[in-house]
Give the backbone structure.
Amino acid sequence: MATITYTAADVDAAPNATVVRGKLGEAATTGDALYLNSDGRFYKADSAAAATAKARGILVGGQQGTSYPAGMDVDVCVYGRVLGYSGMTPGGSVFVTSAGALDQTAPAAVGTFTWELGWAFSPTVVFVAPQNNEPTAN
């Protein structure tokens, strides 16, 4: 798999995207895929477990900079276009892989879970539209 790349300072939600404010449960960086934990905080999504694979959005900003500590309030795009990525194939699915990373190839290793966070709107834009069913075990 080739992880989708981005420069954190360039990642931002498009004007019509749906963005929510939430608290981080761990340190994260702008551009990371996040899931909402049962404690009400956002953590980096990871395909290693069904619960952590269920990304709900992408971290698009906060109060300052691009790196945020646990406990900080941040903005998460939960639906719509997120700008600032590179090298994607338009129309292709975007999947959660490891520690907040995204890829256009679904994880296939035994013990991982497949979760589609959205699709590539263009080579540089992810359209966040999380799947509604449960992650698929590999």
